[in-house]
TrEMBL record:
A Pfam family assignment: Amino_oxidase
InterPro entries: Amino_oxidase, FAD/NAD-bd_sf, Zeta_carotene_desat/Oxidored
Limits of the Amine oxidase domain: 132-269
Protein origin, superkingdom: Bacteria
Record's protein name: FAD-dependent oxidoreductase
Alphabetized GO MF terms: oxidoreductase activity
PANTHER family named in the record: PROTOPORPHYRINOGEN OXIDASE
Length: 394
């Protein structure tokens, strides 16, 4: 078995950023990824004629300081492009409406004063925001909008994990993407690392004061330090033998299955107005995110995030055609992606504190999108904190 200073399991932005920090510190790092591609939720799918569409993460902000520093170190700042000023719409039945058309401004004005006195800590999204915007506004507009943000039912989500305030880099535009999609970031990071894709891990065992990792194809690796950058159920399975207390905590973190279908449609076939995306109300999907934020001469693209287990692939395409007001034949270019997102509830911070206590003193490190929040920057911040802990053991 080849021995590494660090083995990272999971090649999303969490795992790749931590592996990059390790490599920059002079450590020999290996990244193992079960999928056939690296990048995780950074997934810019390419259709015909070079048209790409984000199937996962789709927007970066100038408050993402950790991401910006990585991009600066990779020489990628020149690839930033601004987003077209288009807005999200709401889908009410089969009618595309403005968000404001669904609001009760009277209820909003009589409730918004609570914003200055209510605290998010210990509150769910529903308990906090319904008092600020009013119960009907929350049910009709804000709950579906928050569902769209996290691609799952948001009511029980911790209010203080939904949006995190961060310092902004005033020298960078407020919101942006990259000219070739966000996957270009993870592709560039991965290019500077040793990454093995298609790596199905069957066992993680103790090996002295380090770890032995066994793959289904018979390969094996050893590492002094092990990083888990996978969804909680996978992390729990991987560390069950070597860190049962941490595994028990990870098993308590729920995840939600999301079924995404992306479509590229010739522009001349579409009559729906330009938009950043669609927020669905009581539908088979939570939201649709549009490529209208970055114009293409020939195509428009939409990623529909469907609720798990509701529709088959062809049924999803029929629903998409109905929403976009086109014939099914217009959706010949389509792609499907299944993913899992964390689904924390109030009290999640206590779970994370318990996990950190279980990890203390070990050469095992855990990162991902289920610590302070689900945003790209939350992943990088957690990876930075875990690398600081790892650095103390060098």
């Amino acid at each position: 078995m080849k021995n590494y200073d660090v083995v990272v399991i999971g090649a999303g932005i969490s795992g790749l950023s931590l592996a990059r920090y390790a490599r920059e510190a002079g450590l020999e790092a290996l990244v193992l990824e079960r999928a056939e591609r690296s990048g995780g939720c950074f997934h810019s799918h390419r259709f015909a004629d070079g048209f790409w569409l984000e199937l996962g993460a789709h927007t970066c902000y100038n408050s993402y300081g950790g991401l910006i520093r990585i991009m600066e170190s990779l020489g990628m700042m020149g690839e930033i492009v601004g987003r077209e000023k288009v807005s999200f719409k709401m889908l009410v039945g089969d009618q595309i409406c403005s968000i404001t058309s669904q609001l009760s401004f009277l209820e909003l004005f009589t409730s918004a004063w609570r914003l200055f006195s209510l605290k998010k800590e210990g509150e769910s999204v529903a308990s906090y925001y319904s008092r600020i915007v009013g119960a009907k506004n929350f049910e009709n507009v804000f709950a579906p909008a928050f569902n769209a943000v996290i691609s799952q039912r948001a009511n029980d989500f911790p209010a203080d994990m939904l949006f995190n305030k961060r310092p902004r880099r005033k020298d960078v535009i407020k919101s942006y993407t990259l000219k070739d999609g966000l996957s270009s970031i993870t592709d560039r990071i991965a290019a500077g690392l040793e990454v093995v894709t298609g790596a199905e891990i069957t066992r993680v065992a103790k090996n002295g004061d380090g770890y032995a990792i066994e793959l289904a194809d018979g390969r094996g690796f050893e590492a002094k330090r092990l990083v888990l950058a996978t969804p909680p159920p996978d992390a729990a399975r991987l560390c069950a033998e070597v860190a049962p207390d941490a595994a028990a905590v990870l098993q308590g973190i729920k995840v939600e299955e999301i079924e995404t279908v992306g479509v590229a449609v010739r522009k001349e076939l579409l009559q729906v107005p330009p938009m950043a995306g669609l927020i669905a109300i009581d539908d088979s999907f939570y939201s649709a995110v549009s490529r209208d934020t970055l114009l293409d001469p020939g195509y428009r693209g939409f990623s529909f995030h469907f609720k798990s287990g509701r529709l088959g692939h062809e049924e999803k395409l029929l629903r998409i055609a109905q929403v976009l007001q086109v014939k099914r034949d217009a959706l010949q270019q389509n792609v499907a992606r299944d993913s899992r997102l964390p689904s924390p509830v109030v009290g999640h911070h206590q779970l994370i504190a318990k996990l950190d206590r279980a990890l203390a003193g070990q050469n095992l490190f855990v990162t991902g999108n289920y610590f302070a929040g689900m945003a790209i920057e939350d992943c990088i911040v957690r990876s930075g904190k875990e690398f600081q802990r790892l650095s103390q053991k060098i």
